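Predict the 3D structure for this chain.
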Amino acid sequence: MKKEDKSAIIKQLESTINEYAHFYLADIGGLNAAETSELRRVCYKQDIKLLVVKNTLLQKALDSSAVDFTEIYGSLKGETSMLLSNIGNAPAKLIKDFSKASKSKKPVLKAAYVEESFYIGENQLDALVSIKSKNELLGELIGLLQSPAKNVVSALQSGGNTIHGVLKTLAER
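Done. Predicted structure below.
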């Protein structure tokens, strides 16, 4: 491969990584053509971008990023695929579900960069599946903050109805 071609691929990888908030590194080697096509189809449906990358080119693309990705470099061995997504736990769920159904038990998680944190190794998959996005956490927080206000409003409304009912009963007597 020519140096110009490698430079172009590195630039393309840089821009692709910057487009997405989260990425996973996985080993999908050993999947047959039908399984690979199915994995790509499932990724497309869930708005996850799947790329097969060369480790050295990926490392050079990560080097030029503003974030220090040196923790992930140890995982760049063997066959590597990137799953990029703007939803933090979507690729983890996909990897878990697809590897259960696959005969070769692939894809296998190598590393992940999710919610500005690093997760290294296949044993981190369950933690990644259960991770919540910032939007989900904000939604829960807003729900918790609104709950006491809703209770006060409903108590005031029900109290008004009770007083109205008492006055109506007294007026009828």
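Residues 3-131 form a domain with the Alpha-Beta Plaits fold (CATH 3.30.70.1730).
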